[in-house]
Design brief:
By secondary structure, this protein is an all-alpha fold. It is built from 9 helices and no strands. It has helices at 3-18, 22-34, 36-67, 70-92, 102-105, 112-124, 127-136, 147-171, 173-201.
């Protein structure tokens, strides 16, 4: 993966991490309920789950590449169309925020293992996430380079971006949640616009 492609991928990964989704909302909720330190278990679980989903998507794509490069072109165009559709859905989605009551705060303490499992399951059982990566990753795969090396770069980059983003969300949860409810609609429109731009532009790249 050359530097220009990686920088575009980094921007796209940041847009995905910042956009409304189950793992971001989970980090937000757990940050309010359990604090930033304990929410690390949630974040690590979710990050590992995303790496597993990326692995399934990339090596499934790799199997198609062994059949014909035509499949990569088809995946790029289908993936681009899906990203445009997803961007429109994010644009139209309601503001994200959580309402936490005192009863929620006073609930039973959760173990780190329980939070880790919840984060991991949230990532691997979300069909939209699997569809997203199946649409998203072909835009950046170079069929002439090592698929394993590209997986390590893409999965490592996304895992780092996702972990940093969720850690920030968890640490600022008490302040971010009211802000998202207030201006979240505009925030969703920015994230949705990023997906639409990626979906329109990337299939046209060499």
């Amino acid at each position: 993966m050359n530097l220009d492609t990686w920088l575009i991928y980094l921007l796209a990964a940041a847009g995905l991490s910042l956009s409304p989704g189950p793992n971001g909302l989970l980090a937000l909720t757990h940050g309010v309920l359990h604090g930033q330190r304990k929410t690390l278990f949630t974040i690590f679980g979710g990050t590992l789950g995303f790496v597993a989903v990326i692995a399934l998507s990339m090596f499934g794509i790799g199997a198609l590449l062994q059949t014909s490069l035509v499949w990569l072109t088809a995946l790029k165009w289908l993936g681009g169309a899906y990203l445009v559709w997803l961007g429109i859905q994010v644009w139209r989605s309601p503001p994200v925020g959580v309402q936490i009551t005192e009863g929620d705060r006073a609930g039973p303490a959760r173990s780190g293992g329980s939070l880790f499992r919840q984060g991991a399951l949230s990532a691997v059982t979300n069909p939209k996430g699997i569809l997203f990566f199946a649409a998203f990753l072909p835009q950046f795969i170079d069929p002439h380079r090592s698929l394993l090396l590209q997986f390590l770069i893409m999965a490592g980059t996304f895992a780092l971006v996702e972990a940093i983003t969720e850690l920030f969300i968890a640490g600022m949860a008490a302040r971010i949640s009211p802000w998202l409810r207030r201006v979240g609609k505009r925030f969703n429109q920015v994230c949705g616009g990023i997906f639409v731009a990626i979906g329109l532009a990337l299939p046209l790249r060499g």
